[in-house]
Amino acid sequence: MTPPRAKKAAQPPTTRARLQGVIKESRNIMRKDAGLNGELDRLPQLAWLLFLRAFDEVEQERALLDGAYRPAIEGRYRWSQWAEGQNHLTGEPLRDFVNDQLLPHLKELRGSGRAGDQRDTLAAIFKNVENRMMSGHLLKDLVDQLSRVDFANADDLHTMAHLYESMLKEMRDAAGDSGEFYTPRPLVRFITDRVDPQVGEVVMDPAMGTGGFLVEAFEHMLAQAATAKQREKVKGSIRGVEKKSMPFLLAEMNFLLHGVDDAKAVQTNALTSTVADMRRDGVDVILTNPPFGGEEEKGVQDNFPSGMRTAETVWLFLQAVMARLEKRNGRCGIVVPNSVLFDQGIGGRIKADLLSKFNLHTVLRLPNGVFAPYTLIPSNVLFFEKGKQADHIWFYEHPLPEGRKNYTKTKPMTHEEFGPCEAWWGGSSREGRVETDQAWKVAVADVVESGYNLDLRNPHRPDDLTHRPPAELVAELVDTEHELLALLEELQREIKDFSA
């Protein structure tokens, strides 16, 4: 085993401006390489190299604290050896080493098979990673830039995390319809604070994307931890699943930068387990935004009860979430499209199951455009917990800022917007709630009678096309068309009479 490199001398905290300069120069270098076309190539390339750089610092730190620690990446495959060591490479030898030795080695790492084993995690991360840079000299310039970031410095790490989040936003902006992986940070924080995960609880996101919910939950619980033992509990309480390779890589980088060292994250489809297995492998809290509009194959559908099988991904995720929470009396905040609220076929049966086992206490109706331009589908957040359903369900309509018709890149959703809802929420016990222009409650008996339709508009607003039930809108449109047809027929008769 290669001995740990001596700890480098402490550096003064790197200014944010200097770190921004490093990232800016790194991207300038990548723009010169013929193998990278646009941000969708450059940002993933930057992400996996940053990951190896940061992971090397983490491994050095662990080796210093534990003499028996065995690095997951050993020998000449460590960043400190091939990128910074005395025998560091450049030019074509560097490119050939990365392509022919480093990446194949990382893909072939084998661990214990248990969730959280770093060798298995690394193999999953790099399974589909390729070096797209064609110039070994430009690759060396990029590696040298990234070596200037001191991930061992806590201040640098904190600053780098914020810069990385800005890069994730740019990745979202460049990704077009791949933007399904990203949820606005203010919404992530609001949902996490309302569900309020506690030290000692296990938190899961079965569709974690780039890990936003899990990082937020980690920081939320860490703020409560008063002792070293509690902090260790928090570090071991994060679980995530992601089906696609690129967001999984970005999530692992996100975890590293935020100090989530022991996340049990796996790259797979969270729906491939049976409902029975999900119940046995339960968690305390789920925070998630599963993909909208996806379809699952029959083999996946067969993991669910016969009367509740559907190809639509969001319905399967809702059942999976319920199963994971059932035995541990868990609670959840989940983003869903409007279809979940108004569907009354299989969807109605799934909602009936939800209300029979859980207390759906709040439905947050989000304004149109929260996820634009990646999807224009109106969305909502369901908050529920294991236990007897209350006799009513609260609805809260989150409005757009005054004078705004939509969110944009230059005017995104902000944390401050949620202030009124936070004040209305009533704390962890949700006491003292009252009806307002944005809040109203609906009797569960009325929901059951309607066939479990939850797509209910704000009664305090005269008209709300965004959240009115589709059947109501269609009926109104048909009436309008009938009126228009009658007027046209009358006009036609008058023209005939005039011509006669």
UniProtKB/TrEMBL annotation:
The keyword Repressor does not apply. Its EC number is 2.1.1.72. Belongs to the N(4)/N(6)-methyltransferase family. Keywords: Methyltransferase, Restriction system, S-adenosyl-L-methionine, Transferase. It holds the Pfam family HsdM_N. This is site-specific DNA-methyltransferase (adenine-specific). The keyword RNA-binding does not apply. It comes from Knoellia sinensis KCTC 19936. It catalyses: a 2'-deoxyadenosine in DNA + S-adenosyl-L-methionine = an N(6)-methyl-2'-deoxyadenosine in DNA + S-adenosyl-L-homocysteine + H(+). One of its GO terms (biological process) is DNA restriction-modification system. GO terms for molecular function: DNA binding; N-methyltransferase activity; site-specific DNA-methyltransferase (adenine-specific) activity. Residues 158-461 form the DNA methylase adenine-specific domain. Residues 23-145 form the N6 adenine-specific DNA methyltransferase N-terminal domain. InterPro entries: D12N6_MeTrfase_N (IPR022749), DNA_Adenine_Mtase (IPR051537), DNA_methylase_A-5 (IPR003356), DNA_methylase_N6_adenine_CS (IPR002052), SAM-dependent_MTases_sf (IPR029063), T1MK-like_N_sf (IPR038333). PANTHER family: SLR6095 PROTEIN, TYPE I RESTRICTION ENZYME ECOKI METHYLASE SUBUNIT.
